[in-house]
Amino acid sequence: xxxxxxATWNINSLRLRQEHLLTLTETLAPDILCxxxxxxxxDQFPHAIAERIGLPHVLMRGMKSYNGVAIFSRYPLIxxxxxxxxxxxxxxxxxxxxxxxxxxxxxxxxxxxxAGGDIPDRSKNExxxxxxxxxxxxxxxxxxxxxxxxxxxxxxxxxxxxxxxxSHKQLLxxxxxxxxxxxxxxxxxxxxxxxxxxxFTPEPAKLYTWWSYxxxxxxxxxxxxRLDHIWVSNDLRPALRETRILTDARDWTSASDHVPVAxxxxx
DNA sequence: ATGGTTGGCCCCCAA
Length: 267
Known about the structure:
Helices cover about 25% and strands about 25% of the residues. By secondary structure, the chain is of the alpha+beta class. The strands form three sheets. A six-stranded mixed β-sheet has the order 3-4-2-1-14-13. The protein has a six-stranded mixed β-sheet with strand order 5-6-7-8-12-9.
C-alpha cells in the first residue's frame, strides 16, 4: 500500500508567490503539486523552487501574462497529453503527466478552465462561448478515452452544486454558476470521474475554495465559491482516504484569491 | 443595482 497526496492551487503568478509553496508543502505534504495561472513563460520558469520544496521533478506549460500550468512531483514525471491543444488554441490550460509508484501508473490531468468573462451569453461574449466549448471538448475527449487510474485536478472555474456557492439563488446568473456551466461540468465529470471533495463532504455542507479580492473581509462575508476541484477515475474510489482545503491560505500575505486543495489516496 | 481588488504590463486587460 502506497499513500499518495496530490495538491492543486491557482497561485495567480508563480514568480510573485513562490515562497508560499514552502508553507503549502510543509502543511499539506503533497507528493504531487499542480499549479494554475503561473503566468510565466517556460524560459523564465523559477526552477530553483522545485528542489526547495522537495518536489524536484517538474513539467510546465506557460506563456506571458496569462494562464500557465505546472506539475511538481516527488516521483519522475512523464508527459502524457496531446500537446495542450483545446478548442484549437495553444493557451497553456492543460498539462497531463503520469507517475509510477508501487508498480502502478497514475495519470494526472492539471486543468485551468477559461474563466468566461462577465456576461453569461455565448452570442454576446466570446470568452463565455470559449468556456462552454472548452468543457464540451474535455467531455468529448474523456467520452472517447474513458479515464482509468487517473486524477484530474485544477481550477475549473465552475461551482457545480447548490452548496458550492454562498447563495445559489443569487449566483444563478453569475458566470461560474449558471445552469449551462454547471450541467456542462457535471456532464464532463460523468464520463467516469468521482468528485473527491464531495465524496467526503456531501451536500448540503458548504464547500468553498475561492473568495473574491473584492471583499473587505473575505472571512466575515464568506461569499465563497468552490471553483477548484479534484476528481478521480471511478476505479480509484476505493483508494480515497482524505481531502483537505487549506482555507487559511486566503490570509497569507498577498494571498491568491484561491486556496490549495489536497487529496490523499492509498494505492 | 452597483462596485468592490489584484496581477501583469505597458496605460488597460483578464480575473
